[in-house]
Each structure stands twice: as structure tokens, then as C-alpha cells.
Amino acid sequence: MKYDIAVTAGDGIGPEVTDEAVKVLNRIGERFGHVFRYDRKLVGGAAIDSTGNPLPDETVDACKRSDATLFGAVGGPAWDGLRGELRPEQAILRLRKELGLYANLRPAIVFEELSDASPLKYELLEEGLDILIVRELTGGIYFGPKGTAEIENGRTKDGILSACIDEGNMRPADGRAAYDTEFYTESEIRRIGVTAFAMARKRRNKVVSVDKSNVLETSRLWREIMESLHEEYPDVKLEHMYADNAAMQLIRDPNQFDVIVTSNMFGDILSDEASQITGSIGMLPSASLGDGNFGLYEPIHGSAPDIAGKDLANPIASILSAAMLLRYSLSLADEANAAEAAVSKFLKKGFRTPDICADWSVRVGTREAGDLIADFI
Ligand code: IPM
Ligand code: MG
Fold it and tell me: N or C: which end of the chain has fewer CB atoms below 10 A?
């Protein structure tokens, strides 16, 4: 079969880790008799430099035409001075939104071979770890109304902020102000809940819904919808947890979790935390899905400008993202398993990129890691 994959490698280590994922996909293609056609497009800072726009229409169109998109990373010090819509991060946020990718799957798995790389005590991870964070991706505070305003004599011309001031009966001090709004509709909560419950059914039948319903109105709605949805999944256990407690529980006893479902912002934070339990953020892939088969796949790490271009980056997160692409968008489960098994073999044989390197292991660079993993397929 022939498959069309849009490749948006982006900035920093994005291009180098994505190259290794493509290397592995090509080997999978040879082994299993598939042809992957790549359509490489600019995104993030790289796109700003050549077009002035972090997400050119051409890039969005290429993603829409593709069966799946492999994304690298965006951002870096060169573009840190830019504001709002012009920032490289806007590219990934707008892509998620424009492609309708509301469900972000972020597995945190501790490979047996890497339990020594985790900062947690060995006893806590003796049986390994396999958590799936299901993060809502196109709503919440990331996409709610936001703005900046000037306050003079306790008043502002900004309509939304002004309504908040009246509502709260406030008399704010003069000066600059800024706001972001957490905002969720029932249907947005329901559909991410459906993803989480469905995923839990294929795993260990447990969902922990993370919110802050002791404080936030959006969280109270979130909890209510999760409860009512639970009636359709009586075989799955549902628990609720406040976000601050969840952050603590992830470190105290990570194995109590199977699927975690949560809002855009809490999911962003908790998935970085969970990644560290696994030893390195350089290991964790993600899939962003909508209603159909199309998906966007990216490592959860960023562009790491400090190590870019030095052959130091760990390509495993990107390679495992490509494995998720095979599984979820192309329904090629055997091929996905083969890619994941190759990563396991690489680790079992003691090969390590610098981020996960121990005294006894064989230190390899980005390209050599990709070569070895491809060879293990
Ligand atoms: C992530 C990143 C992004 C996010 C940034 C780059 C906008 O942190 O994918 O987790 O906050 O979603
Ligand atoms: Mg993040």
C-alpha cells in the first residue's frame, strides 16, 4: 500500500529526530511492503524565517491532504521576542485546532531496561509503568478568550475584562492587565471522555479524571459530564482527582493510574511530569486525533535549541510517534509493534543517547541511534 505522510519537522532538534523517524518508517516500508510518500513542509520558526508566518496555508493544506502528519518541534530563542499570533508555538496550536485534533494521547511507559533512568525509587517501578494521559487539545484556557488591557481609574475599554470587573465587584489598581479564559462546552468534554473510556477498555479499565472542581466552574461541568458518561461504561472504573493531588500522586504511586483524562492545560503539565518518571522526556511520543483516522504525531519534547545540530538528541520519542502513526492512522498494528520492539531491543542491548546514558551503557548519537533501531527491524 502507498501512504501519504506530511512531515513538518520545524525547529531545533525537530528536523534531526524526525529524520530518524523517517529512516525507521522507510525500513518498515521495505520489510512490510509499503511505500511511504513524504511531503515536507515548513512550520514554526523555520516557516517564520522564510514566509513570515509560523503556519503557512500550504502547510495546513499538505497536512489535510495526508493520511497522517509527522511533526517535530517548534520554537527557539531566535523567535522569543515575537508576540501572540506570530510566535512559532502558534503553528502547532493552530494546526491542532484547524485539523480538529481534540484528543491527545500521551503514553508514559517505563521500559524495563530503563528503570534505572527514572528518578523514582526502584520499588515504585519494579513492575514497570504504563500510563496513558488523554489530554483535551483544542479547548480550555489555550483557546478561550484572551487579551491585554490598560486599566485607568479602575475601568478598562476591554469588553470582557470590563464585564469581569463589574461581575466581581472589583476596583482594580491602574496599570496593565492580561487575561486568559478557561472555557469548555459539554460536547467538548463528552467527546474527550468517550476517547478516554474507550482507551481504558483496551487497557486496564480504569479512568482517573483530573480537574480542579473545588475551585473551577469548568471543572464542575467536566466532572458532571464524566459522571454521566460513566453510565455508558459501567465496566470501567472512574475516579476523580484534583489536579494538585494528581501531580503528587503521580510521584507517590504512579502505578495507581491507567488512563488519566484531563483538560488541555492540566494535561500539558501532568504529561511533562509523567515523562520525567520514565527517565527522559526524550522517550515519549504522542498522537493527536480527531474523529476520523487522520492524526498528527509528535514527540512531547520541545525543540531543545541548546542541543540542536549536535547529534545529541534522543530520537526515540519521534520514532515511537511514528509507531503510533502506523497504529492509529494507518491501522498497521504489526508494523507499529515492530518499530516498538526495535526500540526495546536497542535499549536491551545497552545503547543510550546522552539523556539516558549510564556508566555501563554504549553512548550513541542521534543518527547512530536511528541507524541501530532501523537495523533491529
Ligand atoms: C506540548 C507543548 C505545547 C503545548 C506548546 C509548544 C504550545 O508544550 O505539546 O505539550 O503547550 O501544548
Ligand atoms: Mg507541553
Answer: N
